[in-house]
Amino acid sequence: FSDKSEGNLLEESLVQLRCHFTWELLVEATELPDLENRILDEIDYLDTRYNAGIHNLLAYVKHLKGQNQEALGSLREAEALIQQEQAAQSEARSLVTWGNYAWLHHRMGRPQEAQAYLDKVEEACKKLGASSRYSMQCPQMDCEEGWALLKCGGKKNYERAHACFEKALAVDPENPEFSTGYAISTYRLDSFNKATQVSEAFCLQPLREAIRLNPEDAYVKALLALKLQDVGQEAEGEKYIEEALGNTSSQTYVFRYAAKFYRRKGCLDKALRLLKMALRATPSSAFLHHQVGLCYRAQVIAIKRAANWQPRGQDRENVDRMARLAISHFQFALEQKPTFEVAYIHLAGMYIEVGDYGRAEDTYQKVLCLKSLEEEKLQEIHFHYGQFQEFQKKCEINAIIHYLKAIKIEKASLLKDKSINSLEKLVLRKLRRNASDVESLSILGFVYKVKGEINKALEYYERALRLAAPLFYAF
User: Which regions does the record annotate with the repeat TPR (predicted)?
Assistant: First the structure.
């Protein structure tokens, strides 16, 4: 009974700690290999003064993979880095590391070691004047949590990371680390809010502020360049890209984002050259392989456009060759990161390009089966699958089903608008073939209702009701 009671008391103490084991980091089991690769890439290639936390996160990932001895090694690395920092910063980071030690020893069935680290946390909290026995409220702690959430990815983690950095900045607005974390989390969230120009511009000021406080941060300069390109200020963005490329700091990361910038500018050869340089350093990067695939995909589109969308002979051969190169890189990206939703869409698109509709169908089915899809991604998947059903499979019923699924997701987005327009065109085409199609009239009424054209919506609903009434009374 005594052992059981002590175990419960230990658990009650452990849950009060602020560390990776208590931050509820949302990571799918299938994402762990990619997350570990990205952590290792950051340790090796991202020049930062804030990397004790990344070793803590690596320890947590190692534990999730069942590699507890390796996890202890990562915590020792974190401790060694903390010793090199300023006292005020190192105390907060030490609390996180000791909390992770306590949890890890507990999970390994070592209650005495776990208690020893709990005691260290308690002693430090008392010394720092914390109101809680086992946790401390301070901006550095919020920052540590923010970095962990940011690295794990996904909209919910990004939103929580953004709140952490915002809270830290409220206490110390001139802190370069807090400002950098806030800017990056705002940039990541902007990728989920492409419906409005306002949201796209929202992260410009935080990025500029982060650069003001840390002018040598080439990584943040590359992100600012991409965001300027997003909002139509490409010339200014290119100046930041050139500055970042001229800096030896974080070069592997700068190559990634510079390549993305030049791909979107249409400089595909330059983009591919940069991506291949980055791949030499990080050959397993899902991000890089996806970007290479996008370059080959862009070359497919360029050849088709030049051939007036009817490539023949050598052009057709080049399209097939580029599409197959894109396929190989998208496939590799998905092997590394099976939850990479947009890579499935791009892979399916290239299968369609080479006429392999069976594999395209399989790819769409895989992505539709993924758990915890964000609304924005789900809209995109349903729209593209609807297009596939309409134009390749010639199945209007399935196309309508998936356009409707995209539209019924409340989130305003460009893909929702595209789904509305595609559905409207499809249903109008059906009505030209059969003006008495009750279902098509009803769907068109729904489309105009969604578009806010209430009078037109009522007109089509009423036409559908008049045609449906005789059928109803016949029964």
Answer: 341-374, 438-471
